[in-house]
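USER:
Class, as today's exercise, take the chain set out below, and explain how the chain folds.
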Amino acid sequence: MSAGEIELSYERGGSGPPLLLIMGLSGSALTWGEPFLGPLRQDFEAIVYDHRGVGQSSRMEEPFTIAQLAEDAVGLLDALGLGSAHVLGVSMGGMVAQELALSHPGRVRTLTLGCTYCGGDGSSRASPEVTQRLAEGSMSGDRERAVRAYWEANVSAGFAEDAQAYAAYRANALNRRVAIPVIAAQLQAIAAHETLTRLHQLTMPTLIIHGTADQIIPVENAYLIAAHIPSSRLEIFDGTGHLFFLERPDRSAELVREHAAIPA
C-alpha cells in the first residue's frame, strides 16, 4: 500500500472502529501475537503494518526520524481512506504515536502509549548491561542467540521460561527478520526523539501502560509521560516486562477496549 513516497505492508482484520497499531524497535506486524490481536479484532478493525525497511515494506534507502515514521503512519491512514483511528503504539511505536498525535491530533481518536519514552530531562533508557547483552547477541552472527537475548530482555524473568510463549516469539522473529542496518537506523531515530516539552499539547484521551519489570524502557518513563499529558490514565503491570501485551494479552486488550469507549 502506497503511504506517501513509500510502500507499507499491512494487514487489517476484525470489525468495529479502526485501531492502528504501531510496533517498536526491531519488531514487525507479527510481533503483536495472536493472543493479543485476536481479542482486539472482536471490537476493532485492527490495522498492523511493518515500518519502512521491515518485511515487504519499502527498503530503507537513508536514515529516518521518528517524525518521518509518524508521517508514514498518516500516509497509511490516508491510503486506507481513514480520517481518524484509535492509535496504539508500543516502545519505538509509542514514540511514533506521540509524534503522530502531536502533528495530526485530529487523526487520533484515542491514544494508547505502551512501554515507551519521551526523551528530555528525567527520562531513562536501558542500562549499559542490558544494552551490551543485546548488542552482543545481535553482532554474534548467531541468529538463535540474538533472538533469545532479545526475548530475555523484553519479558520478565518468569515469563522468559515459558517455552510455548518463546516458541511463538521465536517463530515470528525468524519468519520476518529485521536487518541490523534497519535496527541501527531505528536506534538512531530513537536517540534523537524528544517530545517531553510538547506532551502538554495532547488533549485526546490518553492511556499509558507499562510494566515494572521493563528492562528496555524503565517504568519511571511512564510516570514522567503521565505527569505531562493532561488527564491521562496510567496503568502499571506489576512484575511485567517490556512486551506487556505478550505477557498479559487479555488484560491489555481489555484496557484498549475500555479506553476506546471514552469520547474523543
Summary: Strands lie at 2-3, 6-7, 10-14, 18-22, 45-49, 85-90, 108-114, 206-211, 233-237.
